[in-house]
Request: fold
Amino acid sequence: MKDLTQGPIRGHIVAMATPIAVGMLVQTLYFLVDLYFVSRLGPEAIAGVSQGGNAVMIVIALTQMLSVGTVALISHAVGAREHARAELAFNQSLGLAIACTLFALALGLAGIQAYMSAVGATEGIAEAGRTYLLWYLPGLALQFPLAAMGSAMRGTGVAKPGMVVQMLTVLVNIVLAPILIAGWGTGHPMGVMGAGLASSLAVAAGVLMMVVYFVRLESYVSVRPMQMLPRWNVWKPLLRIGVPAGGEFFLMFLYTSAIYWLIRGFGPAAQAGFGIGLRVMQAVFLPAMAISFALPAVAGQNFGARRADRVRETLKQGVIIECSLMLLLAIACHLVPESMIGAFTSDPAVAEVGVGFLTIISTNFVAMGFVFACSGLFQAMGNTWPAMASTATRLVTFVGPAVWLSQRPGFALRQVWFLSVATVLLQALVSGLLVRWQLRQRLQAFDVLAREGTVPAAT
Reply:
């Protein structure tokens, strides 16, 4: 366990974010490695795997529900110096993760066919996506126990072991991808089926390594099977905090699915180009996402310790770091988009769509950095509904105008990208207003304690 209620805020954020960023980079390499080898199979395979990857957002939404709630409860308990409460929260999270694993398997088997049939521009795209998702489904289901264990470590202020495990799992995936997808060494290429299978095997290896770590090395929170039995008094606050965070990611799934549906009339090249551009953008976002994942642990421990001054300082430092990083990343996307997209396709039509998307969409990166920082603080204070409301405004203001534009003469892909930029700017404004309101409302009692001398001054 690491105490984040003392010492420099910026140092804590950077120290937490660095291993998280490495771990997230490794996680994104799953998709990029698959995409690299799948891109050799043609535009329909690219589009199918990309759309299948978008469906993964549903699982990410559910794992976020688990992760955000777990980090909040454990970091608050650590900040309040209540070890038993932190350990109970971890085991309840792990029990809930097992239930979610079974639910994800059932949901995937029931919904993959309908989803790919709805968004695929051709039957070839739909079939590629279905095959990829079916073979990746076991890996997706295993993300839940992985998320529970990783979130417990973040809540206690420790992120390095999770980074090491993710690095090892991506190495497994990198070794398996060319063997299973392209048939290197076997002479039996499995195509998109191999992409899904390689990722599932890599995730399974990661879960096994995390279990070994918790059983043999973790000392602050331990696996206690009897504490995994459902306790509503723990599940209730975990879900109250986590469900809106998961809903936020589900709304992003709907947002991306709406784009795939809107551009299906432009053919496989358009969907493939958007898919590659989206993956590249997600990879570019990694440093900023790492900051937003570090903020809940840092601010959460200080919230649990009733340190209002340090909670506010965490937001300030988070916004500065996030927006600075995103500005640099936006400049890079404007200067060399061809190189970023060209690494994954040699098809001129696909590349043109991907470059156009990345060039335009990068103008909203700074605003997205601000949104990420606000979202991290909402999680830290245990109220994630404002973050979900902010994302909902983006979805609502995008879908209606986008559908209207798609029915107008001269409808073009650039109109979709520019509309997306405008809705992100609106989302940033809404997030700013909501975070000010939450800071005023939830820290007021802590300010009173500080004035009375009950809470120690910032160090």
Observations:
- The two ends are 19 Å apart (CA to CA).
- The mean pLDDT is 84.
